[in-house]
């Protein structure tokens, strides 16, 4: 009898071990974040299904299962449901986006503008970099930096079809920060700059920082800057208000005076800008005048604007010269702009 009981016990233990070993195990998936303006969580994968919840950009979910391009998630309140995997951003990418957003808060503003078209925001400069968000058309943005990335035309383009050689090109990108509505519209898989996307108003907005194709941003240039730079053939990359002066002698009304950094002529992709211009207000003639022009530079953003110890407008930036970086400092007194040189610096070094 005892022997029979022992055999039964052994069989029970063996079955339990086999079940524990062979039973399907739940995979441990990391948490993820919603990477779109809105996403619907469904109760099943069936053709007839019901919505469980609508999530917005940045909402955190726990991933518990995955089937092809669909994932089962657990919401903060404990509900379970299914999402399209493409709307999710993994934790590592979300952390990078958060750090990028925080970094721009400490950077000096270089320009302001608006998106011309629906524009993809990426974690790095380049069309193959992970996408963080898509701004709609006419979204206000602040510009903090510029970079260059290689870009090759996609296969099947008219150039390729005609048998012409497709060469890799360089493309300018801006580091920007902007705020857009969430909760309106759906995912848009169009390429960077596609003419798509809803800009309907929403009760909530989200702030996102990242890299966008520079030509998809239109600067909010003051009229004076826009007119003068256009006539000089200069493409603006950054602009700043240096100070304000009376619009007329003994007038309380004031006019701003501007510094502009940009590119004219052939683009050197090793530099951010090659020209500076300063526009001052002439109260006697009641118009803006070009007070300072410098070309042949190899300057890098950011340009930092401030005041000297005497209260005069001052600006500085890094420049490459003789294969080395140096900081160049300029000071404006009334309508005169001069570079401030270091005591041991030769006054007329020639650039190679």
What is the structural class?
mainly beta
Rg is 29 Å
Helix content: 10-25%
Number of helices: 4
SSE topology string: HEEEEEEEHEEEEHEEEHEEEEEEE
Q: What is the strand content?
A: over 45%
Q: Give the overall form.
A: elongated
Strand order of the largest sheet: 15-16-17-18-19-20-21
The main β sheet shows up as: 7 strands, antiparallel
Number of strands: 21
**Residue runs with pLDDT of under 50 for 5 or more positions:** 184-191, 194-202, 348-352
First-to-last CA distance: 102 Å
| pLDDT averaged over residues | 83
Care to describe what's here?
The protein contains 4 helices and 21 strands. The chain is mainly beta. A 7-stranded antiparallel β-sheet has the order 15-16-17-18-19-20-21, covered by helices on one side. A hairpin with a 2-residue loop joins β19 and β20. The chain starts with a helix and ends in a 12-residue tail after the last strand. Mean pLDDT is 83; it is low at 184-191, 194-202 and 348-352.
